[in-house]
Design brief:
Helices cover about 35% and strands about 15% of the residues. The chain has about 220 residues and is of the alpha/beta class.
Length: about 220
């Protein structure tokens, strides 16, 4: 059984990443936080029986991601007109390489553990699609055994009904779906203030630095 995980990310840059946290954090701090998230995920992926692929927003400095994920099986730019098309294309690309199961996750996930990925793969044993919910009504993980476009026919990925709308689209297409474990992501200042990262993580060290710099967390 060949399995793969896709890390769906952008190269952290001040002013272009984690912009919903601006105001609480500076642009530079937003980029530092994103790098911390990536470094923590880099310790999670190798503990799962799956190859890692990194799908990044086109950026001439994408190679900086290789320093965080030196063991990745491949890197490629995201392609598509919108988020749904980009995710579909990434999954289809990796499945075409001969993998039996592929799961794609975001990166704002300091609480994600190997168990979340493993459950995503397990959910595909008896379902066409695996999906992991976030508390804000979205999802952080989607997995497939064959490339299906239907789950990505959602118009607003920033709303509170993305998860439910995605489930409806999957079922309307006659596909089966099974849940992965839920996992909180970090999108808003409130999310960040409520975050209690595990000790001895890049995220915990980053937040400690922010507090020393006077950020009210």
């Amino acid at each position: 059984m060949k399995q793969a995980v896709i890390c769906f990310t952008r190269v952290p840059r001040p002013g272009l990443t984690k912009t919903r946290l601006l105001g609480l954090l500076t642009p530079e701090q937003c980029a530092r936080l994103h790098w911390a998230f990536l470094r923590d995920l880099a310790k999670i992926y190798p503990s799962v029986d799956a190859d890692l692929f990194v799908a990044y927003t086109p950026d001439p400095e994408w190679v900086n991601l290789a320093a965080v994920f030196p063991y990745a099986a491949g890197y490629f730019p995201q392609e598509g007109a919108d988020l749904g098309e980009k995710m579909y294309n990434a999954i289809a690309k990796v499945l075409a390489l001969g993998y039996d199961r592929v799961v794609l996750t975001g990166t704002d996930l300091p609480q994600m553990r190997a168990a979340h990925l493993e459950r995503g793969f397990e959910a595909l044993a008896d379902a066409d699609i695996a999906i992991g919910a976030t508390p804000d009504g979205g999802y952080y993980l989607i997995g497939m055994k064959q490339a299906h476009e239907a789950p990505f026919h959602v118009t607003n990925y920033g709303g509170a009904t993305v998860y439910e709308n995605t489930l409806a689209a999957i079922r309307a297409a006659g596909l089966t779906v099974a849940p992965a474990l839920p996992c909180a992501d970090v999108d808003t200042p409130e999310d960040l203030k409520n975050l209690r990262p595990a000790q001895d993580t890049a995220t915990a060290r980053c937040l400690a630095e922010f507090k020393e710099e006077g950020t009210a967390l």
